[in-house]
Design brief:
Blueprint: H1 13-43, E1 61-66, E2 72-75, H2 88-94, E3 113-118, H3 127-130, H4 150-153, E4 162-167, H5 175-187, E5 192-197, H6 211-218, E6 222-226, E7 235-237, E8 240-241, H7 243-253, E9 255-258, E10 263-264, E11 276-278, E12 288-291, H8 301-305, E13 312-314, H9 321-326, E14 333-334, H10 351-361, E15 380-384, H11 393-404, E16 410-415, H12 422-427, E17 433-437, E18 443-444, E19 447-448, H13 454-466, E20 469-472, E21 476-478, E22 491-495, E23 508-515, H14 520-527, H15 539-551, E24 557-558, E25 563-567, E26 570-572, E27 602-607, H16 616-621, H17 625-636
Parallel strand pairs: 4-5, 4-9, 5-6, 11-13, 15-16, 15-20, 16-17, 22-24, 25-27
Antiparallel strand pairs: 1-2, 1-3, 7-8, 9-12, 10-14, 11-12, 18-19, 20-23, 21-27, 22-23, 25-26
Protein name: Alpha 1,4-glycosyltransferase domain-containing protein
InterPro entries: GlycoTrfase_DXD_sugar-bd_CS, Nucleotide-diphossugar_trans
Pfam families: Gly_transf_sug
Length: about 650
């Protein structure tokens, strides 16, 4: 920037002009020098120039917000899809927009929405979700390479310990790609992983596929490198690698190329003593290729493999999970034939399940949630009530059900003002009901909190850390007592179905939460709020806790019988098949599909409140499952009018 210097009155004008000309010439020279320097630098393979291609996943969002702050539903833009993805039709179906009337629970039902169009901040992968070590975690099982002596690891005959990936096309970096890179980290222990790309991996709108950023945070020598495909023919199509590019890189330096969809199941260091190891599947291009420097050169891979003067080997990767499991002699690599999520490997009792858990979690054992009957969840309940206002009939039933059905010792109602109205008058003096004043937070980890329903997301976790017990939304009623078994776990939650956000395989609804004080899961959940997004309704309370649980499945017990969520008068038990299908209705049909007396602990009506649960008069006049539940609670409380 050029700063004009004011001339003193006595200074001769021509000297002023001369000084200004000199300043302008020097500025121009500086700009030219900088431009030349940048041009020269761009000719060298840059590490990350394509990062400016990252799609801001929270851009141009239409946010529907309840006037009382109850509801904030994000309608997705359509510019974040894998535009060149041959499976785009699948992606379109997976990330369809959600309805605009999903509501948070703070004790006041939705009274309408207003539309606010605002850009949201960019979000990177939260390291607290995947990278925080917790004290209860077992030590990872040692890998074979860690037990080798240094003279074996530092053998000069070994092929260079650099691994190459090639990424073609604008698309998501998914869990199978993460497993591929992590298997290299675990079994090869490379000096460098060079990730060539023509288009930087994009982040899906709902922020599920953060795997690429997590790799960058976990491994210090993971090096994304942009390749300009107008000058280098790296790709033969969307997701298709031009192997000539790979051969050129390996010839120059040697090392190992691994296809993004291939997972190493093991990797004997003896393979690096070969001149070439070919495990590339000819048609799909999956597998890996390892060479010493100078190979394959101008020859084909098959010519080098057949050269008697070279020490070479051909290996076949398993082409499916079933093939890997059936093999008596386990292949060193596998290319799964289908999409994978962490939940697919949690309880998978097979060789592939054990191998993939070792890659992802560091141990092959099935993760098991800890139980302790000597240290039960405190028999207390927590409810949030903000802003005052009349207690509605469903909230009244909620409190009664906690006392007379769940049989908690105390119901603590936390908020900045007491409820009002006739129903509050009936319970406010009950010896088991306590009103706790708590000021509404303005920030969490320095992030603004202005959407009032997000306060429940923040507070319920804090309740668990400080006190333990049971948290419930005000539109929830218990139909069974919480037994010792469910109270023996450190943390208990259940899946949601009303606000499912593909590509998330699931989300967690903590409208009913059970937990012990200071349990590790609640700490990690709270730490994930360092990446709090106030303008995203489901990120903080539904999607983030799922990501925490995905990486630490031993910390949270997911019990589908904890609650049944009813949305738009449809009740979906999440233990039933296809519970995400909104066209299916599993409730309101007596004992044919759901026995509300024995199958579940609590019912949760998210939106709207059924008419029969809006007043005592409507309840007594109504028939059906909802009315039966309401009358059952009044009967247990000794209040049913015969």
């Amino acid at each position: 920037m050029v700063t004009l210097i004011p001339c003193p009155v006595k200074m001769i004008r021509k000297y002023c002009r001369l000084l200004l000309v000199v300043v302008l010439m020097l500025s121009a020279l500086y700009v030219m020098t900088s431009h030349v320097g940048n041009s020269l630098q761009s000719r060298v393979e840059p590490e990350n120039p394509g990062q400016d291609e990252i799609v801001n996943p929270l851009r141009n969002v239409l946010l529907a917000v309840d006037r009382k702050g109850n509801d904030a539903v994000v309608n997705r833009p359509r510019d974040d899809l894998n535009v060149n993805d041959p499976n785009r039709a699948r992606n379109d179906a997976e990330i369809r927009p959600r309805r605009n009337n999903v509501v948070g629970n703070i004790g006041v039902k939705n009274e309408g929405t207003i539309a606010i169009k605002e850009p949201l901040p960019a979000v990177t992968a939260p390291p607290a979700v995947g990278g925080v070590e917790h004290v209860a975690a077992p030590k990872p099982a040692p890998d074979a390479i860690e037990s080798l002596p240094n003279d074996v690891l530092l053998d000069p005959r070994l092929a260079p310990n650099t691994v190459y990936y090639v990424w073609c096309g604008r698309r998501w970096f998914e869990f199978v790609h993460y497993l591929s890179v992590m298997s290299v980290m675990r079994f090869v222990r490379p000096d460098n992983v060079v990730f060539y790309y023509d288009s930087y991996p994009v982040l899906d709108y709902w922020l599920y596929n953060t795997w690429f950023d997590e790799i960058k945070q976990q491994y210090p020598f993971f090096r994304p490198r942009f390749v300009n495909t107008t000058t280098e023919n790296m790709c033969s199509g969307h997701g298709i690698v031009n192997m000539a590019f790979v051969y050129k890189r390996l010839t120059r330096r040697g090392g190992m190329y691994v296809n993004e969809n291939t997972i190493l199941a093991s990797f004997p260091i003896s393979l690096r003593r070969y001149d070439m190891v070919d495990a590339i599947e000819a048609i799909r291009g999956t597998g890996f290729l390892l060479t010493q420097g100078g190979l394959p050169g101008v020859r084909s891979v098959s010519a080098v493999i057949q050269d008697p003067a070279k020490r070479t080997s051909s290996i076949r990767c398993a082409a499916s999970i079933a093939e890997y499991n059936a093999a008596a002699q386990k292949p060193v690599c596998i290319t799964p034939e289908s999409k994978l999520f962490p939940k697919d490997i949690w309880t998978l009792d097979s060789d592939f399940g054990r191998m993939s858990r070792k890659v992802f979690y560091g141990r092959p054992e099935v993760p098991i949630q800890r139980q302790s009957f000597d240290d039960l969840v405190p028999n207390i309940a927590h409810i949030v009530w903000l802003g005052g206002g009349p207690m509605d009939f469903l909230f009244y039933l909620c409190v009664l059900s906690l006392i007379y059905v769940a049989k908690v010792d105390v119901v603590y109602i936390h908020g900045d003002a007491p409820p009002t109205g006739i129903y509050w008058q009936r319970v406010r003096d009950h010896q088991q009901v306590k009103l706790i004043f708590r000021e509404s937070p303005r920030t969490v980890y320095g992030n603004d909190v202005s959407v009032i329903s997000h306060v429940t997301d923040i507070w319920r976790v804090d309740f668990m850390l400080k006190y333990g017990g049971v948290y419930v939304d005000t539109d929830t009623v218990f139909v069974r007592e919480l037994d010792r078994n469910i109270r023996s776990y450190d943390a208990v939650g259940s899946y949601d179905w009303t606000y499912w956000n593909p590509p998330f395989p699931d989300t967690i609804n903590f409208g009913v939460a059970v937990g012990k004080r200071n349990a590790t899961y609640w700490r990690l959940f709270q730490e994930s709020m360092r990446w709090f997004i106030d303008k995203d309704w489901s990120w903080n309370g539904l999607r983030q806790p799922y990501k925490v649980q995905e990486r630490h499945p031993e910390l949270l017990r997911l019990d589908p019988h904890l609650q049944v969520i009813c949305f738009e008068f449809k009740c979906h038990p999440t233990w039933w098949p296809n519970y995400h299908d909104e066209s299916i209705h599993h409730g309101n049909s007596g004992g044919k599909t759901l026995d509300w007396r024995t199958d579940v602990y609590a019912f949760h009506w998210t939106l709207p409140t059924p008419k029969e649960l809006t007043s005592e008069e409507h309840l007594m006049a109504a028939k059906g499952m909802f009315a039966d539940i309401g009358r059952y609670i009044l009967k247990k409380a000794g209040l049913l009018k015969l």
